Amino acid sequence: MMRSSRKQKGMSSLMLLYLLSSIGFFVLCAFKIVPLYAENRYIQEAMRALGDSSEPINDMSKSKIKKTLQKFYMVNNIRSPGANEITVERSSVATIVHVDYDVNVPLFMNISVVLSFENYLDSRKPGECCKPPFKANTK
Q1: Which tens digit of pLDDT belongs to each residue from 57-106?
Q2: Residue 81 and residue 112: Cα distance in Å, rounded?
Q3: Where is mean pLDDT largest: 30-44, 49-63, 73-87?
Q4: Which residues contact 122 (CB under 8 A, 6 or more apart)?
Q5: Which helix (H) or strand (E) holds 120?
Q6: CA end-to-end span of the chain, whole Å?
Q7: Are 124 and 94 in contact (CB under 8 A)?
């Protein structure tokens, strides 16, 4: 009976340090990465608004499409430099708007995370906004 009362109960200080540092790492990652996903969500909303606008995308000029998206960016405080990489492709059938960009997020020291975002709007299917078209893997 005397022996069992001497056993350690609870967590050691080394284990507590490990637990707190692990939690700190994940909180740091969340604080650096989550705002970028939120910004991309605003970009998707801008593209949806462009698809739902009263003027069809096919009737808009390339510069008007870019200005409309950039106004939405300004109102919603989107600061990613890649968000301004708007590509407009026209064909006889449809207008396709791409906002594809990569963001390099420095976590600490020389460790970085690269996030890639692909946003795609096809004027033929504005309801399917922001999902890149399916590309079959060919061998």
Answers
A1: 888 888 888 888 888 888 988 888 888 888 888 888 888 888 889 999 99
A2: 17
A3: 30-44
A4: 94, 95, 96, 128, 133
A5: strand 111-122
A6: 70
A7: yes
Measured CA distances, 129 to 1, 18, 47, 138 (Å): 69, 44, 7, 25
- Beta bridge partners, 46, equal none
Looking at residue 113, its amino acid is V
| 78: nearest Cα among 32, 115, 121, 36 | 36
Would you state the structure tokens that stand for residue 15, as one six-digit string? 């284990």
- What's this model's pTM, rounded to 2 decimal places? 0.77
Counting every residue written for the chain, the total comes to 139
- Helix or strand (DSSP H, E) at 106: strand 95-108
Per the structure block, which two tokens stand in for 3? 């022996």
Cβ-contact 115, 36 below 8 angstroms: yes
